[in-house]
């Protein structure tokens, strides 16, 4: 993933991770405490969180799921399944298929709204000065 890599075996602190991901350090700590991370970040010798490329990739997925309307409990359920390891891929697929269907429905609704807005713009752009334009 472009822009967030740091190299093999290395990690970055919470402030740097937050900056790279465009969130606050508080958000990253919340993701961890809410059980949204498959593998919580390790700690350095001073006890500070140390995020790897794998953590950052997972957090981007969490952000995508949340941005598309998946509730925290759904993200947690997905993380729990992933954390449990192999053998539950069907359950993961079921969860992701259901979310995908919801996102597709939202996209269709937004496309309908956009079409209505485009139609209204066409009315206004086609109107003449002083002509009556319906609301």
Number of domains: 1
- What sequence of helices (H) and strands (E) makes up the elements? HHEEHHH
- Give me the count of strands: 2
User: What general form does the structure show?
Assistant: elongated
Q: Gap between N and C termini, in Å?
A: 46 Å
CATH architecture: Orthogonal Bundle
Gyration radius (Cα, Å) is 22 Å
In terms of DSSP E residues, the strand content is under 5%
Low-confidence stretches: none
Which structural class best describes the helix and strand composition? mainly alpha
The CATH class label is Mainly Alpha
Helical stretch tally: 5
Per-chain topology:
Layout: H1 14-21, H2 25-33, E1 42-43, E2 49-50, H3 53-67, H4 72-84, H5 89-126
Antiparallel strand pairs: 1-2
Describe it.
The chain has one domain: Multidrug-efflux Transporter Regulator, Chain: A, Domain 2 (Orthogonal Bundle), CATH 1.10.1660.10. A hairpin with a 5-residue loop joins strand 1 (42-43) and strand 2. The protein contains five helices and two strands. The chain is 61% helix and 3% strand. It starts with 13 loop residues before the first helix and ends in a 9-residue tail after the last helix. With 135 residues, the chain is an all-alpha fold.
Which key phrases capture this entry?
two-stranded antiparallel ribbon; 135 residues; mainly alpha; 5 helices; Multidrug-efflux Transporter Regulator, Chain: A, Domain 2
State the gist of this model.
With 135 residues, this protein is mostly helical. It contains five helices and two strands; from the N terminus they run ααββααα.
